Every structure is written in structure tokens, then in C-alpha cells.
Amino acid sequence: MRKPILSFKLPRGRLIAGAAVALLLAGGLFWKGQPRQSGGPLAVVSAMAGHQEKSLQQRVEILAGQYDAEPIDARNDRVWKGIPALNGLKIDVAATVKQNEKNPDGRLQLVAKQIPPKVTLDDLGAVPIYRGNPEKKQMALMINVAWGTEYIEDMLKTLDECGVKATFFLDGSWTADNPSVAKEIVARGHELGNHAYTHPDMSKLGAAAQQSQIARTNQAIQKATGITPRLFAPPSGAYNDTTVKTAHGQKMRTVLWTLDTVDWKKPPAATITSRVLNKAENGAMVLMHPTEPTRDALRTLVQGLQKKGYALVTVSQLLDPERPLPAP
């Protein structure tokens, strides 16, 4: 969802470059949306010009100095396993100056390119993933669904009202029993993932049984919604190398979680909220389920994360190498 462009006035007078950057960041840089394809030019930022004593070229160079960043390669971390890559960002100063030469309202529309890394998650092969890139000011809500429907509608309403898209990992047998609910989740714009068919301990199954669990669930989800998931969340986080390789063989990534609400134990809503807000961090994936306390905690949790400056995105968006611009 696009953020509104807000207006502000910078103080007049001469300021050193460092103070100029700080003021611009504090009051006037607003993300207008991420580009669809890496490497292509696109206007990404709107900022009030300010500092009339500085030339347009100088103002753009100030912003470029703050926003330019080198790409970060994906890597296989000893603890966190697969860590996604992050594109670099390069402000095209000349193109930005040209685009803003006749800009009447004082806003700067910056033109930038995403610079792809040399190594991506695809290059790492079959690795489990527990988090997004720690340089990304984003988090993802992953909602595992294997039982019940009574709290899902309320959760969907809250997510709608907060402007947030989540990733729902659906159990195959649940999907077969509740195709209309699965379809509604998609209609609300959320992402679907695979959560196996009968909620088994995947680490205790042979390769053929694991293959069947994943394939049958994809078939159930595809039949209900027309979507074939590309993410697999093993039930209870139980997996082995065969699990990851089996999912990879079906062109799926195995994802776990960074923060666990432990909501299946039905703690008070306030406990769920504090577990997440107290440990919120860049790139975190938050595990939850459609339970009563989660329903009750969701609005406060989401708004608390947004207040901390985190953009809440789907798991696929979190793992994508696209580099978002800092939130205002």
C-alpha cells in the first residue's frame, strides 16, 4: 500500500550538509512504492526541496549520498541458515535533476536503480529460511492454519483495516474442508503457503511420504483458489534435510520463523503482543495461528509494529532482494 506524500517546511538559513541530510530524513523523504523489476529506473522518493540557497544539483546529491547503498549477497548463515540478498540502490543524479528542472511544487522526484547482488537465495539451493535480510526495515506475519475457521474473518478484517498483507500457510486437509475460506483469504490479497496435508512431523516421514504431504496440499490449494504455493512451512517447525530438498524439488522454499507468539497455548492477548513488540527486528517473520487471543491481540500488535517503523509485508516480499527506501 502506498504511503501518502506529506508536506513540511525546512528552516531557512545555511546549514552544513550533515544537518541538511538529517532534516531531510526527519521530515521529508517518503517512499512512493517499490519497483516491480530490479535494475530499472523509477521515481521512488518525494521530498520537499528546501534550502533555496542550494542548487537543485546539490540537493539531489545530498539525498543520493544518504540513499546510495551497495548490494548484499545472500548467504548460508551458521545459525539462521539462508539469509536473503538485498539489492543495492543508486540514485541517478543527472536523471533526477532533469526530471525536476520544471517541478513547480518544490518536491523532488528521485530516480533510482536497484542494483542486483551477485548471490541470491536461488544460488544457495535447498536451505531453510528463518528470516529476511537484517538490513530490511520490514517484517512478515505468517499465519499457520490447520484447524478452525471462527477467528479468521475477524483477523482478515483487522488486517484490511490496518492495510497489511500476511502469508497464510494452509493445511491441505483444512483447505479441502474449507475451500471458500481459503478463497476469501486470497480475495483479500493475502499470500498462501503450504503447511502439509495432515500436520505431521515431517522429520519422521520418509522421502515419498514427505513428497505426498507437500504435493497433495498444493493440489488442494490449487483446486480451491487457483494458486500453487511457492513457500512451505513444516508443521511445528519439524523438518530434516530431506524435507528441505523435497520442497526445493517442487520449486518451493522451506520457511520457519524468527519470532514465535506461542499462541497455540492460548496466552492472554497482551502476552502475545509483548512477545512480538519486545523482540521486533528487521527481517523478522512472526509465527501465529487463528486463535482467540491472536485475534484479540492482532490490531495492537500490528499498530505497534507500524509505530516502530516496520513495513508489514508478505513472506515472499520479505525474502525478495528488492531494497525498500527508509520509512519516514
TrEMBL record:
Endpoints of the signal sequence: none
The biological process GO terms on file are: carbohydrate metabolic process
Q: Which GO terms describe its cellular component?
A: membrane
Tell me the organism's taxonomic lineage.
Answer: Bacteria, Bacillati, Bacillota, Bacilli, Bacillales
Name the InterPro entries for this protein. Answer: Glyco_hydro/deAcase_b/a-brl, NODB_dom, Polysacc_deacetylase_ArnD
The family database entries (Gene3D superfamilies) matched by this protein are listed as: Glycoside hydrolase/deacetylase (3.20.20.370)
Extract the CDD domains matched here: CE4_BsYlxY_like
Q: What is this protein called?
A: NodB homology domain-containing protein
Residues in domain NodB homology?
137-313
Please give the superkingdom of this protein's source. Answer: Bacteria
Q: Name one GO molecular function term.
A: hydrolase activity, acting on carbon-nitrogen (but not peptide) bonds
